[in-house]
Amino acid sequence: MEFNNEGRASDIQDRRGGGGGGGGRRAGLSLGGLVVVGIIALLLRRNPLEVISAVERQQGQSSTQRTGPAPSPGPRNDEERAAERLVRQATTDIQDFWSAALPRMTNGQAQFRRTQLVLFADETRSACGAAEAATGPFYCPADQLVYIDLAFYADLARRFRAPGDFAQAYVLAHEFGHHLQFTLGIEPAVRRAQRANRALENALSVKLELQADCLAGVWGASAAQRGLLRPGDVEEGMNAAAAIGDDRIARMAGRRASPERFTHGSSQERVAWFRRGMTAGNIMACDTFGNGTLRP
Questions:
Q1: Which DSSP string corresponds to 171-204?
Q2: Shortest CA distance to 98 belongs to which of 228, 224, 282, 275?
Q3: pTM for the whole thing?
């Protein structure tokens, strides 16, 4: 993937080395550890990635407090240095795209509100709670910021076997899709619906996540039209969408995939909605709720 910008400094909030907490590298989970994660996630009805974060934090907490170095003030290795450049470029490109496209796609009824991506090392705080590398990139609606520790991309490439710059960009586009959902009132509407009917909580979460995948695809379609993609990039994005499906994560944790417990959608669903956005290039193709309003 080749961007034609170097990224706006104002789009990034860099907290690395800023005392956000954490320090030190976390230990990876073994296969046995993934099995434990699967059991805990099943019992608590939580996203396995969130449980991985909690388990790994507990594993490294005492040694980190005794001997862990201060958080890195910047990239910790060449791999992260390359990832940082892409993240800065992608963050600006994604937001530039939605700033121009959203009014057009909604006949002037909606405007995209620019936000920031928070770069952190190991751990920081968000208005939604602790943010850690093992949690993966996420969007916090309480402060309307996107968070990422660049170490996540090593996990994406190695643990989930989804390498590539467009795979990395897809992950960011998905999170900024959540910000777009917040801007359009979709995310708050889903949360209200979940509180009103707890039995539909997981199903609504899946629809919200699949819609963010579709919105990532809409941006991806624009990137392709503007000549930013290279051969193989689309396949990288599809592979990343498949890699983080709930069913695949369940199998990695050694447990049976239970669709009623999904929170993000199956690999097949995630790929299908990402592809749908890429094909249509318009947010109106992203009606995962099936009622023509893009929201429940």
A1: HHHHHHHHHHHHHTTHHHHHHHHHHH-GGGHHHH
A2: 282
A3: 0.82
